[in-house]
Every structure is written in structure tokens, then in C-alpha cells.
Description:
The protein is an alpha+beta fold. The chain has two domains: 7-81 and 369-435 and 475-683, Collagenase (Catalytic Domain), CATH 3.40.390.10; 137-312, Neutral endopeptidase, domain 2 (Orthogonal Bundle). Helix content is 50%, strand content 6%. It contains 28 helices and ten strands. The protein has helices spanning 17-20, 50-61, 73-94, 102-114, 116-122, 128-135, 140-149, 198-201, 205-224, 230-247, 251-254, 269-272, 278-285, 298-310, 313-328, 334-349, 357-368, 370-381, 384-406, 413-424, 449-465, 513-530, 551-569, 585-605, 619-630, 637-646, 652-656, 663-669; strands at residues 7-9, 70-72, 169-175, 183-189, 263-265, 292-295, 427-431, 486-489, 494-498, 633-635. A four-stranded mixed β-sheet has the order 1-8-9-7, with helices on one face. A hairpin with a 4-residue loop joins strand 8 and strand 9. Helix 2 (50-61) crosses helix 25 (619-630) and helix 22 (513-530) crosses helix 25 (619-630).
Amino acid sequence: MRRHFPKVLLGAALLLASRADRLGGADAAVATRGLDVAGMDRTVNPGDDFYAYANGGWMKATPIPADRSSYGLFAMLAEEVNARTAGLIRQAGESKPPAGSDAAKVGAYYDAYMDEKSIEAKGLAPIKAELDEISAVADRKDLARVIGRQLRADVDALNKTNFHTDRLFGVWVSPDFAAPDRNVAYLMQGGLGMPDRDDYRNTGPKDVELQSQYKAHVTAVLRLARIPDPGSRGARIYELERQIADAHVSRTESEDVLKANNPWRLQSFPARAPGLEWESFFDAAGLSAQPMVMVWQPSGVSGIAALAGSQPLDTWKDYLTFHAIDRASRLLPQAFADERFHFYGTILTGAPSQRPRWKRAVDATGSALGEAVGRLYVERYFPPAAKAEAQKMVGNITAAFGRRIDNLAWMSRATRQKARAKLATLYVGIGYPDRWKDYSGLTVARGDALGNFQRAELFDYRRSLAKLGKPVDKTEWWMTPQTVNAVNLPLQNALNFPAAILNPPFFEVGADPAQNYGAIGTVIGHEISHSFDDQGSQFDAQGRLHNWWTPEDFAHFGSAAARLAAEFDVYEPLPGMHVNGKLTLSENIADVAGIAAAFDGYRAAREAGNAPHASGFTGDQRFFIAFAQAWRGKSRPEALRGQLMTDGHAPGEFRADTVRNIDAWYQTFDVQPGRKLYLSPESRVRIW
């Protein structure tokens, strides 16, 4: 993910899919469940394939739904949460709340998204003003002004280094690398319609086929909009994007935060990145008063700026016109929405059919009014007892991580003290933020779905700009409470664990500790560990980008990290396509360290004696099986290919099998030399 630059845990699920489609299930509790013994395949030796041992039965019996590109535990729990959230949103609209209240806005946003008749009747009218502005571009200053006015805080806050947006640039407001007590703007490379620069650059048969399909998509959108000569214009748009892709910095290079620490004074942009009329750009973007902007990918930004100055204005106008339409197409007449799904859904991810509109409406409402929806969710589904028990688990696992730091024989006293200080100042948010967002400045109107979306984007952007130069709120959340995920924020030295992930089978008040610690406990350990992975370890206790290691300690850490990267490089999920050990290194370090800390925390939480047997397994066995079952999932080949190219997370099966680096796993399942996952003690990666 990209750091707040965030590190995220992406995921996988145990709940029955049939429950997820119950739109009326708002009051139904998520089923209580421990291990899914029936979903295991006990004919597999755990030392040969632990993932298959824990999940083989489920893998054989569970198809990927037609509206999904992948499916697993995280997705299934998210479906359950969405069903609950849908009920809350509909109730908000039906209960006739006071005009202008958050509840009224939530209901109006959802209803407008569902109002297909109104959307069809309006046609392209909702984006006419934007298209007219693009059409009126007469010179390079006009071009810069349009690009600047389009700037939004639409950088994926969970995936900054893998940043991709169909706008030419994205902006992200967050603490300064050098002074984390103040917020600054980070400018990010963008401008691509396909997910990654290599989609344009690679020359394999599948890559060439994808490029042809994207060209066809661009042409189809222009044709639907009745723009003359769509074929020739589409070809020019694609060629411009190919040149933008050539300018882009690679994902693995973008992962190096030391290369992202580039404060540029605004006056220096014309010399450092000539081609774009920067004064007009910053003025239109509302950034002209800033003394400095951080440039995450300098060569990417410079290369794009050069194209702004060299490519024909008419080509840029066609490019901006296409992306304005394509970006809005989800909320344009059905033909546009169908064409967008055909490419971004079916072709890119392999999903045969689109999700029901009510599910898309829930997601869209939660995106635009995230904390307003989250507040409704917390009030109904996250009781104080759940927060208290989760906080207790965090305390146990944090203490276990501290003990692991204390017991590292290779770490010097000086480095250990700095690591301990970082752990001591870590902020952990459980369930929901300490302060809720104020949506009073956002206008939401019934019958105006696209207008609502545009106003919500602009509202978020202006809210981000308002933080510039202001003190940093370490407790600010970057996920909504109804999100099934978790995040580490290195620049804030903070963690967020939303209420939605604190549900069975990850977590349940009073449940089997082995299940809770093996599932949500390893998630907690994973996120704590991100503060000490190959990226997080470069930030100190205050969130400053600062090397707090002795040279000898950092060399030892780097050597262990390299061995883990090499371990993952060997995995081959698709013929000829391997996991990128360097791209996924942060997540893999966090998995190994997180399992170890969670297991120590679980052992401490048992207080005395061994955990009782249950479901035919010891407590320690249940811990490791719960961890592996948390990563159960399956993907269509198209989606898996995209993940291997662009995602900082390895596929779930390899994350589950990383138990091969944990000494206790060998003892728990009596894994002996000769088994496929066996690593000799000296070959196991032990970082924390």
C-alpha cells in the first residue's frame, strides 16, 4: 500500500456467501464460528502445503461468484458488512431525518445512485460543463489550468507507491518526511487508463492483447459520446498514454521512500520540470500559496510535464475529454457503465458480470460519506465490549513485540532503545476515530448522482488542502469503520483497525483465544510489524524519515530481508509469472514478524497451562490453522496476473505458507526435514 504512506493488510473469508446477498439482513449478526474444519484437507501433510491443509476443502467446494474477480475470507466478510450497511443506509433515507443532517445526506446519496431513470434521462448533461471547458482550451496556460482544476485528493491512501489515476497527477496531503508535525502536499505521477506502466511497455502476447483491448475501449467510449472520428482520436489518446507510461517510475522504485523525499519550491518547478505552465497549474489547483510541494516521483513528474509542453493541444484535449467521460461513466447512462465494466471488470479482472447496483451504491455512498456511514455502523454493530477486548489484545501483542525487541541478540543497545521508543509512542485506533468528520459543507441532492460524486470529490480535496501547514492530528483515520481491513501509517506512527474487521471469524468477544489470536491477532501483529518493516523501519518514533539504526544493525536487517525476498521470488502462481519478492517485501516481513508476536501474545494470554483441545486440535494448532484460514481465497487468472504485476501483497496461499519461518510451527505440527515447506533452522528468516 502506499504509506501515509500506509501499509495495509489485504485479504481473504469464512462466511457463507448466501448470507452476503440478503439485503434485508441489516440486523443479523455475523455467525459465530471457530475453525472451519470441513474446509480443511487433512489428507495433505501440513509440512508440504500448509495452505492446502487448512483450506483445501474450501478451495474445492467454493466457486468464485460471477460478479467477482476473486473471492475469499475478507471479501465474504465485506459482503456481510455491506448487507448490514445497506440496511442502515436505506433506513437513513426512509426515516425522514432532519434536512441537511448526515443521515439525510447518506440516504439521498444512495437514492440518487439507485435512480437509474434520472441518470438515463440526463445523458451526458452532468459533464457538459467539464467537456466545454476542455473544448475551450486554446493554449498551454489553458491546458495547465484545466489539469490543475482537475487535481483531486484521489491518490489511493492505501497504495501511494503504486499510485495510478486517470488524472494526470494526484495529490496527497500528509505529514512532512522531515517535519512530521506539519502537513504538506505530495504530488504523484498519474495519467494512465490501465493499471501500470508495464501494461503499455510489455510485449508478450497477453500484453499486446490487453493493449489492443484498451484501445478498443477508448474508441468505444468516444463513439458512445458521439465524438467524431473516434478511431483516429482513440489511437492518438493511446499513444499519448504510452508516452506517459514511459515517463513513469516503476512500482519497485516508488517503494523506496528515500527516493520520494523531494521537497521542491514552487518557483523551481519550471526549471526542474519544464513543459507544463506550472504557475497556472498551481493557481487552479489551489496550491499557489504553498512554499513547497513534495514530489514523490521526480522523473515521472518531469516526464509528464515535458509531454504537456510538446504534444499537440488537440491530442491533449482528446485525452482529457475521454478521461472525463470514462471517469464519470459509472454514473452515466447504462451503455457507458456497461462499457467501463467490460474493460475494467471483465477484461482486466475476469469477472463475468457486474455486481448488483445496490451493492455498488453502498460502496459509493460509503466512499463519499465514509465516516457518516461508519458512525451509523458503529452505533449498531460495534459495542463497547468489542472495543475493550480488542484493545486488550493489542496490549498483549504490543508487549510481546517489545519483548521480542529486548531479546534480539544481534541488535545493539542504541538501536534497541530507539525501537522501544517507537513502539511506546505508537497510536492504535480501534473501531472508529476519536473525532468524526464534519460533512456540513457537502451538498447532496436527490436525482443528481454524478453531481453528488463530483461534489464529494471536491469536498475531500478542499478538506485535504485545509490541512496544509497545520499541525498533524496523529489520531486521524485513513479508513472508514465499515472497511474490512487494517492499516499502518508510518508518518503518524499510528495504526487503524476498523470495526468491520473486528467480526467473526477474525474476532469475537469471548471466543477461543487461539482463534482470535490466530486470526485478528496476526492482523494486529502484522500492522505493528509494519512500523519495523523495510519501509517503516526508516521512520523514527515521531514519524520522521530518519535512520535510527547503527550501520551494523541495519546491515543485519537488510540481509535478513533479502533472504525473505529471495524466498518469495521462487513462488510461481501462474506459468512464467513469479511473485516479486522485493515488491511484496514489506508485507512479507510484517507477516513473519506479526505471526511471531501474535503467537507470543496468545501464549501470554492463556495465563497458565496448555489451551484445551477443541475441534480435534490443540490450542497451538488452532492458532496456526486460524492464521492460514484467514488467507483463504481464489482469483481468476486475469486478476491474479494483475496482482502479481501491481500489488505489494503476495497471493494468500504463499502468505499462509510463511509459517515455515516460525520455529513454533515446526514443533506444533511435527514438521521434519524432507517436507516441502521445511527450512533448516539457519535458513528460517527471523527479523523481529
